[in-house]
Specification:
alpha/beta, Rossmann fold, Dihydrodipicolinate Reductase, domain 2, nine-stranded mixed sheet, 17 strands, 31% helix, globular, binds nicotinamide-adenine-dinucleotide
């Protein structure tokens, strides 16, 4: 009957993914689940789905094969472990966990149960990452010398509203988390391109000054006062990496990658993306190539009798490999620089084929753990600390 998927958490972000899970040809049933009964009913109507479930506890008792977790960001680790122990495959929105204990438990549970786990790391399918991954694979960068990954998201850019709807009356306790506890959009763009992992870190924090008092030791559950953190890492390939996680910053925001090799480099600024060669003649402006303006669906890619306006792979750039996507995705929504459709397809195909997806639990740990240790370093004035590694997929060197 096809894969049966339960959606845990039917909030704002899940809205982007439910239509994709529904449309995937290998999915037979989508069950919606939320603690908020009113929201659950409204979302069931909105998405045209009839089967619902009032809690993750009950969803774990049902016959679903897989559970996709879109709950609040501080709940994912324990919920994923609960679902895996119930025998379900798990897709989780980022972050995969919020502490070393949680991420260790998650990796061990995947190893013990043999179930598929995948983190929905949107940056992995950003056009910048796709382009750099391909050129790195071809050897065009040469050995990597240095990289920068950044995620800038100022609180004035919608974060107050997000934290209020996620945290409810208690929102201030959860709003001021250490920025380095959410490092995965930045770290994954480098790890997901070169395959190298972070081995050592020294990090500094910027003590917040805002009158809202969110980043104060007595306000949030993390006792955190840093709203901006900068970390310098040693990588397993010998390169150096600087990661910025900023939540109070005079910047329009977004994720950004700069990657420097001995042969050539990639530079990304707010409005421009550039391939930089040693010689001026080899440089190229990639801004248009990597812009996510959508591409028309070809017969091979999935033109399925839709009106011309809908026969488009929405939200993707010219470097996204849309030909691998199900034809049923043509004309559907696709957020975060064209990544959503690829993430859903990766997860569903991993569940039905038994193959390990790219953003597996070991990759998720390599995206997350460097940030957890970086914050520890910042608390200790920048002391250089070793970054533990939780391993690789069985039988698979990465
Ligand atoms: N680029 C990205 O990767 C990206 C972007 C946006 C959001 N996110 C992630 O998506 C997640 C969801 O964000 P959101 O804004 O939609 O949150 P939200 O607060 O709108 O929705 C979360 C929902 O989960 C439900 N829930 C919590 N525990 C549950 C349980 N035990 N059983 C059933 N339902 C439960 C809540 O009732 C709530 O309705 C966040 O964790 C966030 O980190 C990732």
């Amino acid at each position: 009957m096809g894969l049966r998927i339960g959606i845990c958490g039917t909030g704002a972000f899940a809205d982007c993914f439910i239509p994709l899970f529904k449309a995937h040809p290998e999915v037979g049933q989508v069950v919606l689940c939320d603690l908020d009964a009113g929201k659950l009913q409204a979302k069931a109507t909105q998405h045209g789905l009839s089967t619902t479930c009032p809690s993750l506890d009950e969803l774990c008792q049902t016959e679903v094969d897989a559970i996709a977790i879109f709950s609040q960001n501080w709940k994912h680790g324990p919920q994923a472990v609960q679902a895996l122990r119930a025998g379900k495959h798990v897709y989780s929105a980022v972050p995969s966990a919020i502490s070393m204990d949680e991420i260790r438990d998650l990796v061990h549970t995947v190893e013990a149960t043999g179930r598929t786990y995948m983190v929905g790391e949107t940056s992995y399918y950003y056009p910048t990452a796709i382009y750099c991954r391909e050129r790195f694979r071809k050897g065009d960068f040469g050995p990597i010398v240095y990289a920068e990954g950044e995620y800038y998201h100022d609180f004035d850019h919608g974060l107050y509203e997000v934290m209020k709807w996620r945290g409810g009356a208690d929102w201030k306790r959860f709003a001021g988390g250490p920025p380095m506890y959410y490092p995965t959009h930045s770290t994954s763009m480098i790890i997901g391109v070169t395959g190298a992992r972070m081995t050592q870190v020294s990090c500094l924090g910027w003590v917040d000054r805002h009158e809202d008092g969110l980043f104060r030791t007595d306000t949030n559950i993390w006792h955190n006062e840093f709203s901006n953190e900068t970390a310098l890492f040693r990588m397993s390939d010998g390169s150096m990496v600087r990661i910025n996680e900023f939540r109070r910053i005079g910047h329009v925001g977004g994720e950004r990658l700069n990657l420097y090799g001995t042969k050539a480099s990639f530079e990304e600024q707010y409005l421009h993306k550039t391939w930089v060669d040693k010689h001026a003649g080899g440089c190229a402006d990639l801004t248009e190539l990597l812009s996510c303006a959508g591409v028309p669906a070809t017969a091979a890619g999935g033109l399925s009798g839709l009106p011309a306006a809908d026969a488009v792979h929405h939200g993707v750039s010219k470097v996204h490999p849309v030909e691998r996507l199900p034809r049923q995705f043509v004309g559907l929504g696709n957020g975060h620089c064209g990544s959503h459709q690829f993430l859903v397809d990766d997860f569903v195909m991993a569940c039905v084929s038994g193959r390990t997806p790219p953003n597996n639990v070991w990759a998720a740990a390599r995206y997350l753990v460097p940030g957890l240790i970086a914050h520890e370093s910042a608390l200790r004035g920048g002391l250089q600390l070793a970054v533990p590694d939780l391993g690789e997929p069985p039988g698979q060197g990465r």
